[in-house]
Write a structure and sequence with these properties.
Alpha-Beta Plaits, 21% strand, five-stranded antiparallel β-sheet, 20 strands, 537 residues
């Protein structure tokens, strides 16, 4: 009897422990699912925002090399003082100067072409001498911006970006700026801005918000969250004058965000404070670090149900223990061990498969995986009478990048190139790395005209988006060879790749930074991106 009572007591204790293990495992799974969803959302959003801001961030570094802008600012000189005239008088005076009027016209075209908010040029004293803006933005010609952080950074010779509330426009925007030099002296600043409300479609969910580097919410689907701050925000370290200059306000209300339990990625937060369920919190920075994307994903009612579930599991386990005392003990240990081992094996197999199919540096498909997908697409197209296109891409003068800036910069260029190209592709398209700086793109169910247009967009986007490496912009271009698969002309994958490679080599031989399209396995259409004419070779 004593042994039976001891066994029964041990069984109860074991049953309580086992139910706790199940509850903890279930809780971890619930939190992990929410965390994975939040991580996916944050990564996708930060990538989309980075792509949207890439051109705006790169343009000042290109415009400051413009000869007309350099010459006009050089004539003003490096030692100019801020104008003492009223803003309206300054604007009228500079608008009447033909050189500055022409530059303002060009900046307006830049704003329209690249979907910007504003573009401007200031002299060495910070006065705006030329500007372009969208139709719904108030003109700000003549306004002085010498107190802005981006202007001060440009005086030090740096490319810079910052969030600010427009002094004249009163709009929330991200500003990018670059210094302009004339004969080795600082003579002014050229800059661009993007309205953050233009990114609103990307953050339409209420659980997403975007902050600047000081932890201030600058974009959210909920207008009530605008210019509120995270618990760990550094905006309080700014002086009152700096806060007013940047945000047009003195004080900031903190978000109702409170940590509940846990540490690291699986920490839980209450948001808002009266919410019935906790949230996980994931943060991802944009590629240039200008903004932070925050995703707060609700864990759900499952977590609150775990306490009640534990009592249910405890009662069932006790009943099973009393009925089959010895068998259940052994079986429970076996099941727990088997589950852990099976989970570890699944995770390991999944990781091995992912590593085998993915190029570590660029995130594209590995050569082996890309060729497998290409074979499958060729068989599918053959079976259903479909078409597809293959593009062969090669970064121009990539060896020169490695020799000049080092292999770390070369790796950064490859990653940047992959982000630009993949940002243009459809979800069904496949981007693969088939060599050092050689890549290939599969465009399923795409005609030759559609493939040619995509190749041109890739070439133009790469040319317009230099890679940023240690505060230096590294301009890159790409040569592209393309071919459309047609049953009876290019019947095998090897023939398709050979045709696109021949077109690529022809693009290289014709001067690089261009697209050459193969009309068949034996002839190509050579298309010069600087000319609308087309010829057969």
């Amino acid at each position: 009897m004593a042994l039976l009572l001891l066994a029964a007591g041990l069984g109860v204790a074991v049953a309580w422990w086992v139910s706790g293990v199940f509850a903890a495992e279930r809780g971890g799974q619930v939190v992990q699912r929410a965390l994975q969803q939040a991580q996916t959302d944050a990564s996708v959003l930060s990538g989309n925002i980075s792509h949207r801001l890439a051109q705006a961030g790169a343009l000042p570094g290109l415009l400051n090399q413009d000869h007309d802008i350099q010459t006009a600012l050089g004539a003003v000189g490096p030692h100019v003082s801020p104008s003492t005239l009223e803003v309206a008088e300054r604007a009228a005076r500079w608008a009447a100067v033909p050189e500055w009027a022409a530059i303002s016209q060009r900046l307006t075209e830049v704003v329209t072409t690249f979907n910007l908010n504003t573009a401007w040029v200031t002299n060495a004293a910070g006065d705006t001498l030329a500007e372009g803006h969208t139709a719904d933005v108030r003109p700000f010609l003549g306004t002085n911006y010498a107190d802005r952080d981006y202007f001060k950074a440009a005086q030090r010779g740096q490319l810079w970006h910052q969030f600010a509330v427009g002094r004249v426009t009163k709009l929330y925007a991200l500003y990018f700026a670059a210094p302009v030099s004339w004969h080795g002296q600082f003579v002014g600043v050229v800059g661009t801005s993007v309205r953050l409300d233009s990114l609103a479609p990307l953050v339409s969910d209420s659980h997403v918000m975007v902050t600047d580097e000081h932890g201030v919410v600058v974009l959210s689907a909920d207008p009530a969250l605008q210019l509120r701050v995270l618990p760990n925000a550094t905006v309080g370290a700014l002086t009152e004058a700096q806060r007013v200059q940047r945000y047009q306000r003195h004080t900031f209300e903190p978000l109702a965000l409170e940590k509940l339990a846990g540490d690291g990625p699986q920490a839980l937060y209450q948001w808002p404070l009266d919410a019935p369920n906790p949230h996980v919190w994931v943060t991802r920075a944009t590629l240039d670090g200008a903004l932070q994307v925050h995703v707060l994903r609700e864990v759900g009612d499952e977590l609150a149900q775990l306490s009640q579930d534990r009592w249910s599991w405890f009662g069932l386990t006790c009943l099973a223990w009393f009925l089959l005392l010895g068998f259940v003990g052994v079986l429970s240990a076996y099941l727990v061990l088997s589950r852990e081992q099976r989970q570890e094996l699944l995770v390991l197999n999944g990781e091995l498969q992912r590593q085998a199919n993915t190029d570590v540096l660029t995130g594209g498909a590995s050569r082996r995986h890309y060729l497998e997908v290409l074979h499958q697409e060729q068989e599918r197209a053959q079976r259903y009478g479909l078409t597809f296109c293959v593009l062969s891409l090669d970064i121009d003068h990539f060896k020169h990048v490695n020799d000049t800036h080092g292999h770390a910069a070369g790796d950064a260029v490859l990653r940047h190139f992959a982000v630009v190209v993949q940002g243009l592709l459809r979800q069904s398209d496949v981007f693969g790395r088939v060599g050092g700086e050689e890549f290939s793109v599969l465009l399923p169910q795409t005609t030759g005209e559609g493939g040619w247009q995509m190749a041109q967009r890739i070439r133009a986007a790469v040319e317009a988006s230099p890679s940023l490496w240690e505060d230096r912009l590294i301009p890159i271009t790409v040569s592209v060879g393309g071919v459309q698969w047609l049953a009876g002309q290019l019947s095998t994958v090897d023939q398709v790749l050979a045709a696109s490679d021949r077109a690529l080599y022809q693009a290289k031989n014709q001067g690089r930074n261009r697209v050459v399209w193969a009309a068949s396995a034996t002839e190509t259409w050579a298309v010069d991106h600087d000319s609308p004419t087309t010829r057969v070779t």
